[in-house]
Amino acid sequence: MTYEAKFWDRMAPGYFKRPIGDEDAYQRKLAMTREHLTCDTRLLELGCGTGGTAIAHAPFVKSVHATDVSPKMLEIARQQAHDAGVSITFEQMDTAGFEAPSGSYDAILALSHLHLLEDWRSAISKAHGLLSPGGVFVTSTGCMGDTMAWFRFVAPIGKALRLLPLIQIFTSDTLRQAMTDAGFKIVEDWQPEKSQAIFIIAQR
Q1: What number of other Cβ atoms are within 10 A of residue 19's Cβ?
Q2: Which of 1, 19, 173, 199 stands 20 to 30 A from 28 (CA)?
């Protein structure tokens, strides 16, 4: 098992119990996303964690495939989906290793996820390839380069001490440029507060 899987396994119980930091912003993100979903949407979530967002969207789409690197996160997610009475395919898989035919999905979510990836730009390009024409890529990404650029010196130490996962430090402008470089058109761009994550919906 990789370091990242072990780290998130250890965090899973506390992560699940921790309240959403800004419930109003979260509900707005759900609503904005649903404007781009239909009953025929094939939805993929990369880095689904304990499954809350996948479960919230499941009644509004045709199918949901949700992946995460952590077995314990997925154990909680499967139980929550069962309790909610929704059908979701959960798969233990890191984003770098995920493969599917081109055009397999109509919407892809990567929420609080891109900044935790070794090669987050490749993940954006991969999402573009997995989407059907006109499909959307939905991200909520902590861009610490905007307000905490100094953390780029702390993050490697935290990981070496096994206190932090991999954390990439980049700006919101860098994220937007990576989206457009991958071939996406940004159709929604919202940030609740300057210190909070950037929420982007980009269309293939």
Answers
A1: 6
A2: 173
Residue for token digits 């009953």? 39
pLDDT of residue 163: 84
Which residue has 């940030």 as its token pair? 191
pLDDT single digits (tens) 162-182 = 888 989 999 999 999 999 999
Q: How far apart are CA 137 and CA 45, in angstroms?
A: 10
From edge to edge, which strands make up the β-sheet containing 198-203?
89-92, 63-68, 42-46, 105-111, 131-141, 198-203, 185-190
Token pair belonging to 101 = 């035919």
What's the pLDDT at 156? 84
**What 3-state class would DSSP assign to 98?**
coil
Q: For the chain, what is the radius of gyration of the CA atoms?
A: 16
> What does the alpha-carbon distance between residue 144 and residue 94 come to, in Å, rounded to a whole number?
23
Token pair in block for residue 203:
């269309």
- What does pTM read for this prediction? 0.95
Q: What is the DSSP string of 184-202?
A: -EEEEEE-SSTTSPEEEEE
